[in-house]
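Weekly puzzle thread! Below is a chain. First person to post its structure in token form gets bragging rights.
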Amino acid sequence: MNSDLLQIFADKQKSGEEVALVTVISSNLMQLAPGTMIIVDQFEQVIAGEISDSTMQEMAAKEAQRYISKGLSRKLMLTSSDKYMEIFINVSCPADKLILVGSGNMVQDLYELAMVVGFNISIIDNRPETLTRERFPLANELLLGDIVELLHSSTIDSNTSIILVSHNHEYDGPALLEVVNSPARYIGILGNKRKVTAYFSKLNEMGVAEELMNRVYVPVGLDLGGQRTSEIALAIMAEILAVKYGKSGGFMSVRSITKEMDRHDVYY
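Winning reply:
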């Protein structure tokens, strides 16, 4: 029943999964009623519901997966031989969340870049003079108070990235201790290696598993060579996206491939 599928779809949305609800609007197939629904996951698998024609279901699932990857909902017309089916693909893709600890100039640059990318942004700090709406007008949350307590009460899931940039790195250690065991996809610290080594030593003394400590990115950011605050912020956001998509962050230029082919005298 469609009510059951709608409940499954709502549950998937609540749990933060990337799925699409595909609804048949019209079709020339006698056995396919308008309103028929299927739910498709990000891997193109139909996880609930059924379209009676297997070919049309396969086409619908493929299109659903394509639009899940784009984060877009669309109405489409699918055709195969003399068959047609008009569908609406309702995509549910949870927005990525970025938690920034600190509110200094680096955080301001990170905030501006994250806004462009489309993150939901929460900024946590204990400094009212810099944690202001004038500096971060479109942030989803500005949380002023005890940094560790605010992190503890924050919702952190597998779509969350966290960057620790507290003033003079004073609270980076306690903040790291609070979030290292969280399901966050990315945890990074903007600090020198000496300080971070000290944080790790403390975590080790407290019995935190090594595989959890290995999740922490330090120094943060891809090696782009930038030295300015804005350039470092760009390198950090690039690394967050590389982690999200499981990429190394290397060059995409075909010139490097061509040079390698020439070096080995490879011809086609």
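Puzzle host: Confirmed. Bonus trivia for everyone else. The chain has a mean pLDDT of 88.
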